[in-house]
Specification:
mainly beta, Jelly Rolls, five-stranded mixed sheet, 44% strand, elongated, disordered N terminus
Length: 365
């Protein structure tokens, strides 16, 4: 959108600068463009996403049916604020949803570590209701940002097929010491009073419950899921009394492994609540695994140079002392190793000196 030069010596404000001049959007999907340059903030106008802003522009949209709405400013060239409301005047609006930056964390009540400076909200719309949409620019205490706006709206009308375990009260029971189950969080929702799992902003959570059949170190993972998952384990019987046990966003972000994994010391008979969410609204097929973590040696191989190689698997993040023996005793230390993933390849450079070589590994407390 261009700017119109005014003979008085300034530039015109955008056509939808004022709430009463908001631009009507219709249908779905919607992709529209605009600008907040030279826009103003009205008396009584709320602070969108809790920030003072200062250059807001307005749209309106009437929901054609009940359903889910996703609204973003992705593609805008400045740090946006986004607010969605019901109401007929700036001073009497009721908040539906708001966001400053999306793709971040929510730690101790403070949003931080955002991936994007653009904004995204998701809400459940009601048929026939007019929603007022404001886009403003983040105010850093000196100036409010402004610039070119890309505003997109997508709508999915009901009936919407939600996952069977979308709600905490409908969590699926898992049984056994080793479990592999498949599911999906497509069209899942976030509940009122639900915690932010692994301190990440997610909105597509699904739930399971698992009673530990024995006391053991346990690994729970979403390995094999094709999207950026968030995983958390709790004890407690309601959303309001959950006690965190373990949580994780990305299993190995340095290597772009965006599935999640946690290990914890499970207690026999304790009921654990397991939730898988999607980072920043991500969703897709879920592969959920529960398995006991035990120290083991595997994949023995004699290398071309005569050295001996094997794989040590154990509890991630722990240190293991390696010992070797020619005849089951005495056992001699050959080193200590640790790995964040719990799996490491070991090469014994002295193996060529022996005709028989036995190995064992002990995990440090």
């Amino acid at each position: 959108m261009g700017l119109t030069f005014c003979p008085a010596g300034g530039f015109a404000a955008p056509a939808n600068d004022q709430f009463t001049d908001r631009i009507a959007l219709a249908g779905s999907p919607v992709l529209t463009f605009g600008s907040s340059t030279n826009a103003t903030k009205e008396i009584g106008e709320p602070n969108h996403a809790g920030n003072p802003g200062g250059h807001s522009v307005w749209w309106s949209w009437i929901a054609p049916a009940n359903g889910d709405v996703i609204l973003t400013t992705d593609g805008s060239d400045f740090d946006t604020l986004l607010g969605v409301y019901t109401g007929s005047a700036p001073g009497s609006l009721s908040l539906v949803a708001s966001n400053d930056d999306h793709g971040g964390s929510f730690i101790n009540g403070v949003f931080t570590n955002s991936l994007f400076s653009t904004s995204r909200v998701r809400f459940q719309a009601l048929a026939g209701i007019q929603y007022q949409i404001a886009v403003d620019g983040f105010n850093d205490g000196t100036n409010a940002a402004s610039g070119n706006i890309t505003l997109s709206l997508s709508f999915t009308n009901e009936p919407i097929a939600r996952p069977a375990n979308d709600q905490f009260t409908n969590r699926i029971a898992l049984v056994g010491s080793s479990v592999v189950t498949n599911s999906s969080n497509v069209s899942a929702t976030r509940e009122t009073a639900e915690p932010y799992h692994a301190a990440r902003i997610g909105e597509t959570s699904v739930w399971w419950t698992w009673t530990a059949p024995a006391s053991d170190y346990v690994k729970v993972s979403t390995d094999g899921s094709p999207f950026d998952t968030v995983l958390a384990i709790y004890t407690g019987s309601t959303l309001s009394n959950l006690v965190p046990v373990a949580s994780n966003d990305d299993e190995d972000p340095a290597n772009a492994i965006l599935t999640s994994a946690v290990t914890f010391n499970a207690t026999q008979g304790t009921v654990y609540q397991i939730v898988v969410d999607g980072f920043d609204g991500a969703s897709g097929p879920i592969s959920l695994r529960i398995e006991p973590v035990r120290t083991r040696l595997s994949a023995p191989e004699i290398l071309p140079d005569g050295n001996f190689q094997f794989v040590l698997s154990g509890l991630p993040g722990k240190t293991f002392d390696l010992e070797a023996s020619a005849n089951s005793g005495p056992w001699n230390p050959i080193g200590s190793v640790s790995s964040s993933s719990g799996t490491m390849t070991i090469v014994d450079l002295t193996a060529t000196n022996y005709t028989t070589r036995l190995y064992r590994a002990r995990m440090n407390p």
